[in-house]
Write a structure and sequence with these properties.
InterPro entries: RNA_pol_sigma-70-like, RNA_pol_sigma-70_dom, RNA_pol_sigma70_r2, RNA_pol_sigma70_r4_t2, RNA_pol_sigma_r2, RNA_pol_sigma_r3/r4-like, WH-like_DNA-bd_sf. This is RNA polymerase, sigma-24 subunit, ECF subfamily. One of its GO terms (biological process) is DNA-templated transcription initiation. Belongs to the sigma-70 factor family. ECF subfamily. GO terms for molecular function: DNA binding; sigma factor activity. This protein is an all-alpha fold. The chain has 2 domains: 95 residues, RNA polymerase sigma factor, region 2, helix turn helix motif (Rna Polymerase Sigma Factor, Chain: A, Orthogonal Bundle), CATH 1.10.1740; 85 residues, Orthogonal Bundle (Arc Repressor Mutant, subunit A). Helix 5 packs across helix 8. The longest helix is centred in the N-terminal third of the chain and has 32 residues. It is globular. The two termini are 25 Å apart.
């Protein structure tokens, strides 16, 4: 499923393995975060090369977030360009209170919301059906997979916007709550409560869809 966040098991040998992997990753991640911050300072000083380097690192993630707010690729790409223009103009306002990635996603979100206020947004599927299929998958499995994806997409699309964007940032973008709070400009506790509500509403909607009377049509 596209919206699935994996958590390590606790209280087992797997826990120690997970911690060790995280320790090995932390220096690399910290170096990348530090380099991003240096690039941001260079952008603030007017270095276009630094802006291009940040673009190469983060434009894809920003476009992915924007595409979840509009189904029109051309509009999404325009918003992305507007976002990077905003980054160029406002890089000096970056204070390093959150990772550069979170700050950039916040810029993209604001630009998308500014554009979508002027037009009725059309939500796009969280996961386009562009997955590479098995060479000879069973037809029934394909149909079931598509139905489940449709159910999930429909349920997410029905969520209120303030819950949907939290769900996307936490599960699809795999961002921690504090970074989501920075992007949305809300307290971390509010992010947690919205996430809890989004999960509850999704569970209720999917339960009704997949098991309206005790099972899917054709299960009995």
């Amino acid at each position: 499923m596209p919206l699935r966040r994996r958590s390590p098991r606790t209280g087992t040998a797997a826990d120690a393995t997970y911690e060790r992997v995280q320790q090995l990753r932390e220096p690399e991640l910290s170096a990348e975060v530090s380099e991003d911050a240096v690039l941001m300072r260079r952008v603030a000083d007017g270095e276009e090369v630094a802006l291009r380097m940040l673009y190469e690192r983060h434009a894809a993630g920003m476009l992915r977030l924007i595409r979840r707010l509009t189904s029109q690729r051309e509009v999404a790409e325009e918003i992305l360009q507007e976002s990077w223009l905003a980054v160029w103009r406002s890089a000096g306002s970056f204070r390093g209170e959150a990772p550069v990635r979170a700050w950039l996603l916040g810029v993209a979100r604001r630009q998308a919301h500014n554009r979508l206020r002027r037009a009725e947004p059309v939500l796009v599927e969280l996961e386009k059906a562009a997955d590479v299929p098995d060479l000879e998958p069973a037809v029934d499995e394909q149909v079931l997979a598509r139905a489940e994806r449709r159910d999930l997409v429909a349920a997410v699309a029905e969520l209120p916007e303030h819950l949907r964007e939290v769900l996307v940032l936490v599960l699809a973008e795999d961002l921690p709550y504090p970074q989501v709070a920075v992007i949305l400009g809300i307290p971390t506790g509010t992010v947690k409560s919205r996430m809890h509500m989004a999960r509850r509403l999704l569970t209720e909607a999917l339960t009704k869809t997949t098991n309206p009377k005790g099972g899917r049509t054709g299960d009995r």
